[in-house]
Write a structure and sequence with these properties.
about 500 residues; 3-stranded mixed sheet; metal-binding; Cyt_P450_sf; Cyt_P450_E_grp-IV; lyase; monooxygenase activity
Length: about 500
């Protein structure tokens, strides 16, 4: 879903404006939110075309910040007509205002996971799964407690299981480089990601089930039909109206993926009996628990890995050999001292942790957050205050919040050491890819991702396995259709024997 990004001059202009609005105070006068929704229907279409085709995602927001001299503005967010009844949002585009979206006493999170539209519950077995529930709803408490309980029970499995999957990943990458001179990281990563998730929850290799080797493609199709209104195929300019008509005008029907989803559901139902037994002890119906488990595994876990792992590899590879040398030294030294790859060893890898946080900061795997105001409220940016009325939809664009120049020096530069040291660690509260601050832990009563710590852990393990095996790597990247970049590994350099 990445679209054309602004050039360096446009970004410098954007950072100038954001910095101008970055002198903090709590006594600024209350202002009306600037911006324009335009004419009914036509304003939403205009903004949709700008967002996907005429400007691209980042420039869409950047030009409006410049136009209205504000990082809190009124805009229309896709998809608009006819999929979403109301496309009007108040956008929060800085580090100070964005976190109000985490406060569930002020914002309602009912049916806002995908933004201004809500996919058919047919995609989730007729249930509104936990991700679409507000914490005030009764089922949310039981379902999130269930999720946190599952993850806690699997704690000792995370590292050894994922290392096994990564061993296969690097074998596949080397084989592909040997035969084709390059390897598609995305497709190979997707395969081991799905294998890890299925084996984690079902304790069985998916290739030995009715899913076979088709699990990633099944989930990809299921995800694509739900999220198509937020995507673009990045067509040539003369095909943009066809792309818009196909993806953004009417939702895709569930029947196109019904048979695939049925196979996924039946595989999870058959092989996750112990987990579903536990769900019943929480008062959750078995079929509802299984549909939630499929969503947790397919949408949240696999979908998150599909987005973040290529992003991590892209930024680390492009950071250069100096960082690679430092990572390899830290990782190999600590593993030798600790006698293996353990939780204690990973915790001592300060630079490795920083690199993962920096990847999550510079390109968050979930770029959007939404919530509906539960009451009239005042929202602050660095230098002003604005009133938001009850019932208005609030939207946060995370890449602008986590690249706020008032908070982060040279925010568009990948700095591997950014989160090393006492002062740098204070910046972690401004890294909030997981629907809350990185310094917070998921709780039953909030909407933070229950697998937040697992994602960070797995990202560290990827780097550990990478630099235990290789000194450096090189990649080629290009814009992908979805949230992730397309990453091709062109070389892997093994340590020289001594």
């Amino acid at each position: 879903m990445y679209t054309t990004k602004p050039n360096k001059l446009q970004f410098r202009q954007l950072l100038k404006y954001v910095f101008f609005f970055s002198h903090s105070s709590s006594n600024f006068p209350l202002k009306p939110v600037p911006g324009s929704y335009g004419l009914p229907f036509f304003g939403a279409i205009r903004d949709r075309l700008d967002y996907f085709y005429n400007q691209g995602r980042d420039e869409f927001f950047a030009t409006r910040i410049q136009k209205y001299h504000s990082t809190i503005i009124k805009i229309n967010m896709p998809p608009g007509p006819f999929i979403a009844q109301n496309s009007r949002v108040i956008a929060l585009l800085d580090a100070v205002s964005f976190p109000v979206l985490f406060d569930t006493s002020k914002v309602e999170k009912r049916n806002v996971l995908d933004g201004t539209f809500f996919p058919s519950v047919s995609f989730t077995g007729g249930y509104r799964v936990c991700a679409y529930l507000d914490p005030s709803e009764r089922n949310h408490t039981s379902l999130k407690t269930f999720f946190l309980s599952i993850l806690a029970s699997k704690h000792s499995t995370f590292i050894p299981l994922f290392r096994t999957c990564l061993s296969q990943l690097f074998i596949d990458i080397e084989d592909e480089i040997s035969s084709q001179k390059k390897a598609s990281f995305n497709s190979l990563s997707d395969a081991i990601s799905f294998s890890f998730v299925f084996r984690l929850f079902c304790e069985k290799d998916p290739s030995t089930t009715k899913i076979g080797s088709k699990g990633p493609k099944m989930v990809d199709k299921w995800l694509a039909l739900q999220l198509a209104p937020l995507a673009t195929l990045n067509p040539s300019s003369f095909l943009k109206y066809l792309d818009d008509l196909l993806l953004h005008t009417f939702p895709f029907p569930f029947f196109l993926v019904k048979s695939n989803y049925k196979k996924l559901y039946e595989a999870f139902y058959e092989h996750s009996a112990r987990i579903l037994d536990k769900a019943e002890s929480f008062g959750i119906k078995r079929d509802e628990a299984c549909h939630n488990l499929v969503f947790l595994a397919g949408f949240n876990a696999y979908g998150g890995m599909k987005s973040f792992f290529p992003t991590l590899i892209k930024w680390v590879a492009q950071a250069g050999e100096n960082l690679h040398t430092q990572l390899a030294h830290e990782i190999r030294t600590v593993v030798k001292q600790e006698g293996g790859v353990t939780f204690q060893a990973l915790d001592k890898m300060i630079l490795t942790k920083s690199v993962v946080y920096e990847s999550l900061r510079i390109e968050p795997p979930v770029p959007f957050q939404y919530g509906k105001a539960k009451e009239d409220m005042v929202v602050h940016r660095h230098d002003a205050s604005y009133e938001i009325k009850k019932g208005e939809m609030i939207f946060g664009y995370q890449p602008f919040a986590t690249n706020d120049p008032k908070v982060f020096h040279n925010p568009r530069e990948f700095v591997g050491h950014r989160f090393v040291g006492e002062e740098a660690e204070k910046l972690l509260k401004y890294v909030h890819w997981s629907n809350d601050r990185e310094t917070k832990d998921p709780m039953v009563e909030d909407k933070q991702c229950p697998g937040k710590d697992l994602v960070v852990l797995l990202a560290r393990v990827i780097l550990v396995e990478l630099f235990l095996r290789y000194d450096t790597l090189r990649v080629e990247t290009k814009k992908g259709i979805g949230l992730a970049s397309s990453v091709t590994i062109t070389s892997l350099t093994k340590p020289t024997s001594t």
